[in-house]
Amino acid sequence: MDLGMIYPAVLTLVLIGVLLGVGITVLDKLGASSGLTAGGGEAINTTRDAIADFAGWLGIIVVIIAAAVIITLVVRSFSGAGGR
After folding, report:
1. Residue 64 gets which letter from DSSP?
2. Distance between CA 38 and CA 42 in Å, rounded?
3. What DSSP string runs through 16-46?
4. Arithmetic mean of pLDDT over the chain
């Protein structure tokens, strides 16, 4: 992983976070609306809960990306010093 790849990775994570937030909000409002059958409401609530569970993993994904960048920088700095 190169330092130039941090910017697209951060933008991707922000986009995923925004889409998850909007998706959960829309599904929450749709599930609370009237006119849905019991099965439809249950399907919407199940989908909303599954998406909300995935949102909890974003913090771990950020830590893994940060660790990958740090490990890459450390390995590159030591590999360049050994050749002299």
Report:
1. H
2. 6
3. HHHHHHHHHHHHHHHHHSSS--HHHHHHHHH
4. 83
Range of the domain at 26: 3-81
Q: Evaluate whether 21 touches 54 at the Cβ level (below 8 Å).
A: no
Nearest to 74 by CA among 16, 62, 82, 21: 82
* Residue whose token pair is 């740090």: 70
> How many structural domains are present in the chain?
1
Could you tell me the CA-to-CA distances from 36 to 40, 50, 55 in Å, in that order? 6, 20, 26
Tell whether the model's pLDDT for residue 25 goes beyond 50: yes
